[in-house]
Specification:
Shape: rod-shaped
Helix content: 25-40%
Largest sheet: 4 strands, antiparallel
Strand order of the largest sheet: 3-2-1-4
Number of helices: 6
Number of strands: 13
Order of helices and strands: EEEEEEEEEEEHEHHHEHH
Radius of gyration: 35 Å
Distance between the termini: 92 Å
Amino acid sequence: MNLDQQFKWVCQLDENNYFLCMTKADLDPLENATRYLIPRGAVEAPEPKLKKGYASRWSGSAWEYVEDHRGKIVFDKKTGEQLTHHELGTLPEAVTTIPPIPYSKWSESKNTWVELSNADELRLMDRRIAAGSLSRNQFLTGIEISRGENKGNLLEIVERELVGTHLIKVRNAINEASELSLINDDIWKFLTQTLNMQIDKLFEFWEEAKEIH
């Protein structure tokens, strides 16, 4: 008997009948070399053709090809969260392979991410948050250096230009607060509206004031 008759190649499947690899089926020594011992989970079938992006599944009589996106990076359409896909088959409707852009939401009609109507406001708020805080001394010293207005001058402006709770909150911040932050709407409005500081200049001032000791 020739060596190549001692075994034959068969297709090893996983528990869901997807092709894994080719494996050997040896002759059964107890059957006088009349049949082969087919390994558990294997089938006698021709090796499936490789098809990029697809997995081969045995139907019982032929090979079927199923989309294979395992390991692909996808994004949740609701949250934009990045995920790794692990299942065979078509991608769920809830995800996309298109990376989201900042401050956007998914549009089914356009099949892409579209910028939110308030994206500019969100960007600005993120800048305000990222700016961090200044000590009251850093804030007052920075204002005096950049604008020539000391604490007394600022309080005069506050009393003259502001009213109600806005006046009280800004005055108390200047007089008593240990730290000041741009996410405080009263401070933000005072700087941008009352003192008319341009937004980009305000952020520059804020970073420079952080260096004051």
